[in-house]
Amino acid sequence: EKIFSGFSKTRDNLAVIDELLLYWNLADTDRVLDELEEALLVSDFGPKISMKIVDSLRDDILAGKLKSGNEIKEALKRSVLNLLTGKNGKADLQLGFRKPAVIMIVGVNGGGKTTSLGKLAWRLKSEGVKVLMAAGDTFRAAASEQLEVWAERTGSEIVVAEGDKVKASLVLSQAVKKGKDQGYDIVLCDTSGRLHTNYSLMEELVSCKKSVAKIIPWAPNEILLVLDGTTGLNMLPQAREFNEVVGVTGLILTKLDGSARGGCVVSVVDELGIPVKFIGVGEGVDDLQPFEAEAFVNAIFA
Ligand code: GDP
């Protein structure tokens, strides 16, 4: 599976844990757990989670529940898995039963929004879904062209702005209307991604959301926030703001193939309580994968 090679850098970071646990003995617990915590921090699990994990391991070791390095490793994996799956929200897309379902993709420029939208279209098309794309990033001139390339590549229809300075909300509502009138299954909406510190972007996203809901009341079914995995914990404030303003229903974490910071997946889920729905592990059409918590844990603690 690609996911296993995808996390090689995070896995390399965490491999030190195996060596530590190989030579663990009770008398050595404090030093080993300190170093284990350090390894988690380096991989961007974040201070809160790293401490929480290590404290619970220490409790279980001192209570005699964990008696070997192997048992400690298994307990570590279990607690990471619990952190990932204990939160609200399903990891698969929630698209309801009425057509078309509408997915809005949001996130700052450069994070991998357009690429992820293209890869998602590819995935949906391969499942036999009739996909319509909406080029809602009307600020960045090249964005529509980039999306048109993805439409071509995936054999999807696309709605783009006719003329300059067209509002994103107009493009999205036109697309959703077309999706409804012409029997599409899913409308995938790209949006603008200028820096989140620019308030007008957030205003625009809110107006995009309202404009699609005007056409069909259940839309958008999903608002997926694309986050650049290489930014690690730095993604957190940005994610919080998007969530507060537009209400994010799922995350797409990109560029995890090149990142040694895979632990941020755990911290972002823990902090926001929003499920990761997909991960990006490369630039090709096949490189968007549904997020599976168990496979992820096995990949990083291989
Ligand atoms: P946008 O501005 O958010 O729409 O970002 P783009 O979709 O244009 O992506 C920015 C860059 O990141 C492009 O060069 C993409 O090919 C690259 N990219 C996106 N997702 C991934 C990923 O999962 N892995 C890698 N290695 N590169 C990615």
Automatic annotation (TrEMBL):
<keyword id="KW-0675">Receptor</keyword>
<dbReference type="GO" id="GO:0006614">
    <property type="term" value="P:SRP-dependent cotranslational protein targeting to membrane"/>
</dbReference>
<dbReference type="GO" id="GO:0005737">
    <property type="term" value="C:cytoplasm"/>
</dbReference>
<comment type="similarity">
    <text>Belongs to the GTP-binding SRP family.</text>
</comment>
<keyword id="KW-0472">Membrane</keyword>
<keyword id="KW-0342">GTP-binding</keyword>
<dbReference type="GO" id="GO:0005525">
    <property type="term" value="F:GTP binding"/>
</dbReference>
<dbReference type="GO" id="GO:0016020">
    <property type="term" value="C:membrane"/>
</dbReference>
<feature type="domain" description="SRP54-type proteins GTP-binding">
    <location>
        <begin position="275"/>
        <end position="288"/>
    </location>
</feature>
<protein>
    <recommendedName>
        <fullName>SRP54-type proteins GTP-binding domain-containing protein</fullName>
    </recommendedName>
</protein>
<keyword id="KW-0547">Nucleotide-binding</keyword>
<dbReference type="GO" id="GO:0005047">
    <property type="term" value="F:signal recognition particle binding"/>
</dbReference>
<dbReference type="GO" id="GO:0003924">
    <property type="term" value="F:GTPase activity"/>
</dbReference>
